[in-house]
Design a protein that fits this description.
- The structure is a homodimer.
- Chain A has about 475 residues and is an alpha/beta fold.
- Chain A folds into three domains: about 70 residues, Winged helix-like DNA-binding domain superfamily/Winged helix DNA-binding domain (Arc Repressor Mutant, subunit A, Orthogonal Bundle); about 130 residues, Aspartate Aminotransferase, domain 1 (Alpha-Beta Complex); about 240 residues, Aspartate Aminotransferase, domain 2.
- Helices cover about 45% and strands about 15% of the residues of chain A.
- In chain A, a hairpin with a 3-residue loop joins strand 1 and strand 2.
- In chain A, helix 1 packs across helix 3, helix 2 crosses helix 3 and helix 6 crosses helix 14.
- The radius of gyration of chain A is 22 Å and the shape is globular.
- Chains A and B meet through helix 5, helix 6, helix 7, helix 9 and helix 10 of A and helix 5, helix 6, helix 7, helix 9 and helix 10 of B.
């Protein structure tokens, strides 16, 4: 673990253990440096992370203090806990933005995909070459759902390593997690049904709900704590909800990861109301801590959880291979896939099975997490440096998104449009919500190396925000 | 062109030119052999084809006579021309059958896919290896709709070779034609809309209609002549139809290819009523004649045709690459794809672009057509030899399906079940229709080499049909 991280985690544990209590003044930067033997930079860094995460407060000319619990566990501010949406209408601008992120001339802060140069291209190419050499015509016919058995077994083994028993028969290979999520939602609902989603949430959920003509209840999620359990229960009690689409780890766009206990509570609550959980867990491998967080799937007592994952964020996006551990819905998912895309390509499935058999995935992941964390911190520092202090940057300890809150009067959609005209994309909050609560938020992709181009883009971003603030 | 084919086509032209008139006795087999210098087998073969296609009749102990025009151009028998279906409910047995065809222990007469050993595996593997060597991480990000530009350009060039101008911008790469067809139908309709389909038709159309909650009017199509234009116009006049899903070349399951004039008439009729044509043209490359039949797309005067194709039937199924030439719907299709599967895999798109650039596709196709024709004739001869004479085999001059009509009292669904218990699949007519008109039909896949195993399967098929006939 990088050193600043070690330190910040140690301090968190100490705060949790009441070694440092609310209001206590922490050792100054210099004292801490002397105590721990690490560099001043490292300490500064650790304190910055703690401050950003709400554990401590800095008082100018005074020092650092343990923050009140309520600040840390604060409830969502000025936002309704639950919104009845009825049918969802998704803004067409999402499409324009997604297409813009494919343009190499645009600084891809708005992109949803990790920097493609993070893919272990040489190893993947080696696996692809081996498949090209070995593939037989009989294998070409093995392209029907649920997909290649070796690949499903390798995925089942990875679940087993986390202590979760998933037989390969319940796993269906799909064209990335988006196909998994769409098929899962389709399997669990009929047009007109009610589903629960989070607010804000991955725009794919909003699009799927619109496409399938479902009605949605959006539950406000907190950037630190995730979904509001009381609001969830209220929703389940008020409507005949069929399914709940949730991101439990490294939430997009918020960044938060639910505590294990909370995952357990969510599953229990959904099971109590007989509601199917569609768990979007595409960033599960991108944790920065020392232990991989479990999915809510791990806490199911019934078979009504569909756990949707892919290799797109953690290995390579362009292969388009994901899966769903679909429990009792597995056969229904296969049928739906047979009716829509039939399957994913055989050579791609074989290549991933081959790659996983080389045992290099875990060392790749280790390196990837480290790089992503370094880049996220670099991005965060750069943003902290240039953006006005009234802009709040929500740091999270996984993935490659930062969720940024502007002063309320600024429209991030307008900011996004101005930035895009200047060849920088950002993902405005409106993309992730059906209401107007997040119009002054945006999401930044931090997976790219933070160089001159990125720094200049941030300087421009700061200037445009200043301009918009000055105007209002 | 194979010799029997040359002869049968010459005779067809002569009959069309009234050199041989209705009722004329053709030269006997021996006379024809002497005249043309080809072998007796070749002449027998040519006559068999002509008889099967309804051009001539054989009278036992007498010889071959030119058949009356009415027999050849006969109207659909005892079947309503048009059926209002309302919402479609697809039988779940399709799923069971599709899965059974993936079992190597089952003789795959019921399969929808061509024999995978017909794929030019060595060449494809070479292209795949080259892609593995050359692929860059930047390319991995080029996985957004509409898909790889080189591949779309290569497809546009193939249209141009047929005299059809399609800019690459109107082409969207998809996970096989099934995704094209589903996205096209989705782009052109809203739940509750009316669409026109054929009866019988590809079961994928029935499933898509069910999934999208559309209402369908099924127009009876004739095994030789295809869709009934009068019934089509009646349907368009009676309901606010939004789209028409049609197979124009090598119809599945019928086998027929619409005449150019008829394609033109269909397009004109649909344009008159402002109805979008969704043209399923997946077998377009599998013609046995000397000229590739045009798609109806070639006759459009407006941009309301979506032409759906793939490489699955003509090159390789397991790569899962198809496309749609989507006209004015291109952007809508891209949006729908972004919401469902995002795209097909980059390495597969690159591999196909690479393969097409080797210029080997056309020589592969030439060889493939020849093999498919030989196998289809072998299958047809074998079936003619063993099946009771009351079974009618509809031969068609393209593709790899034979559409077979049993005596009306026999249930092909029951036949299918008995055969499947004996490790032989067939595709019963019920799969291709929402009514009961085709319960005594089934479809046979003739793309496999016709060897002992296949002959034995046909002998068993004949025995079971005999049994079912004796019982009723």
């Amino acid at each position: 673990m990088v050193k600043y991280k070690e330190l910040s985690e140690k301090l968190m544990q100490q705060i949790n253990a009441d070694i440092w209590r609310v209001g206590d003044k922490l050792p100054s930067l210099r004292e801490q440096t002397a105590r721990t033997g690490v560099s001043l930079m490292t300490v500064m860094h650790a304190y910055e992370v703690l401050e950003e995460q709400g554990w401590i407060l800095s008082r100018p000319q005074s020092g650092y203090y343990v923050a009140p619990r309520t600040a840390f566990l604060r409830a969502p501010r000025q936002q309704p806990r639950m919104t009845l949406i009825g049918t969802v209408d998704v803004n067409a601008s999402i499409f324009a933005l997604l297409r813009a992120t494919g343009d190499p001339a645009v600084v891809p802060f708005g992109s949803a995909f990790p920097d493609p140069s993070l893919a272990p291209l040489r190893q993947l190419s080696r696996s692809l070459t081996a498949v090209a050499r070995e593939i037989t015509s009989d294998q070409l016919l093995e392209h029907l759902p649920p997909g290649n058995f070796a690949l499903r077994s390798a995925i089942a083994k990875r679940y087993a390593m986390q202590g979760i028993h998933i037989p390969p028969e319940e796993i269906v290979i799909t064209a990335g997690a988006l196909e998994s999520l769409n098929l899962s939602l389709q399997a669990a609902t009929q047009p007109g049904d009610w589903v629960v989603i989070e607010n804000p949430c991955f725009y794919g959920a909003l699009q799927a709900i619109e496409k399938l003509k479902l009605r949605a209840i959006a539950i406000t999620s907190d950037p630190r704590l995730g979904i509001d359990l009381a609001a969830l229960e209220e929703a389940l009690a008020s409507k005949p909800v069929k399914a709940c689409w949730l991101m439990t780890n490294s939430h997009n766009p918020l960044g938060c990861t639910l505590a294990d206990e909370k995952k357990q509570q969510v599953v229990a609550l959904l099971e109590k109301y007989g509601v199917t959980l569609i768990e979007d867990d595409v960033y599960s491998e991108l944790y920065f801590g020392s232990v991989k967080p479990k999915p809510a799937l791990a806490y199911r007592r019934e078979s009504g959880v569909m756990h949707c994952c892919s290799f797109s964020k953690s290995l390579v996006a362009g292969f388009r291979i994901g899966w769903v551990a679909a429990g009792r819905y597995a056969e229904e998912i296969e049928k739906l896939q047979l009716m829509s895309t039939i399957s994913t390509s055989v050579p791609m499935q074989l290549t991933l099975a081959k790659y996983l058999s080389t045992q290099r995935y875990d060392s790749h992941l280790k390196q990837l997490r480290r790089t992503l964390e370094q880049r996220k911190i670099a991005a965060w520092r750069c943003l902290k440096r240039y953006l006005p202090s009234s802009v709040r940057i929500n740091y999270s300890d996984s993935g490659y998104f930062l969720w940024i809150e502007l002063p309320k009067q600024i429209d991030a959609g307008e900011l996004s449009q101005i930035m895009l005209d200047n060849k920088v994309s950002i993902a405005p909050g409106k993309m992730f919500s059906t209401g107007n609560n997040y119009n002054h938020y945006f999401r930044i992709n931090t997976s790219y190396e933070w160089r001159k181009r990125e720094e200049e883009a941030v300087i421009m971003l700061a200037a445009v925000i200043d301009m918009l603030m000055g105007r209002v």
